Every structure is written in C-alpha cells, then in structure tokens.
Amino acid sequence: MSEAKLNILTKAIVEFEEEVKKAKHDTADNAKALILKAQSLSSELEKVAESTLSEAEKSIESEKTATIDALRKKFNEEKESLLAQIRQRAEKNLEQAIEETVKALEGAYK
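The structure assignment produced for this chain is given below.
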C-alpha cells in the first residue's frame, strides 16, 4: 500500500474513532436529558395525583356532610311531626278528660 493510501486510511480511522466518541458522548447526554425529563414528569405526575386525591377527598367530605345534613333534617322533620301528633292526641285526651270530669261533676250535683 502506498503512503498516501495509508494516510487516508489513518485519517478515516481517526475520524471514525472521533465520531464514535462523539456518538457515545451524545448518547450519554441524551440519556441524561431523558432521565431528567422523566424525573420532571414523574414529579409533575405526583403533584397532579396529590391534587386530584385532595379534590376527591374534599368532594367525598362535602357529599358526606350533605348526606348527614339531609338525614338530620329528615329526622328532625319526622320528630316534629311525631311530637305534633302526640300533642294533638294529648290535647284531645285532655279535652275528653275535662268533658268526662265535668259530666261526672254535673252528675254528682244533680
């Protein structure tokens, strides 16, 4: 082989080795960038998940409170209705007792 061909071949080998080193360096840089991006996305996902969980907890708590309030209201309405019925019966019984007492007194004085 001639010296010119050896020089060309040597330059090609050196260029090839430099390109391989450059490719390795670029690959390492790309991998590092991908890892950093993945970490960033993971952090964002965690924040979104925590936010969503917090909103779900608030929604559940709100629904629970609304359900409890509705049950309390229903219970109080039923209790008031029952108390009103009891009052009516008591008043009716009192009126009957008074009438019978008056009749008994009238019968006693006749």
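Interim note for the steering committee: The chain has a mean pLDDT of 92. Helices lie at 3-109.
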